[in-house]
Amino acid sequence: MNRSLIGLGGVLILAGVLWPWIRSISLFHLPGDVVIDRPGFKFFFPVTTMLIISIALSLLAWFMKR
To answer: Could you give the C-alpha distances from 34 to 2, 43, 45, 46, 61, in angstroms and in order?
Structure first.
């Protein structure tokens, strides 16, 4: 449990450091991501992006398990 928490913390720190670069890629503007933009209200639900991230994390966990 300790190793996984340290690993998760390391990943979060790395994501925080690389955030300007991560935002520049168009990962969060894929077809299928729901965006409702009205005056005074913006709703963003990244359906496609979360599916891709979920598949990538599942594959990573599967490879780590083997």
So the answer is: 37, 8, 5, 6, 28
How do the domains of the chain map onto residue ranges? 2-65
Neighbouring residues of 56: CB distance < 8 A, sequence distance ≥ 6: none
The predicted-structure confidence for 2-49, as pLDDT tens digits, reads as follows: 888 888 899 899 989 988 887 777 777 788 889 899 999 999 898 998
pTM, whole model, 2 decimals?
0.58
H or E segment at 3? helix 2-17
Distance CA 22, CA 17 (A): 10
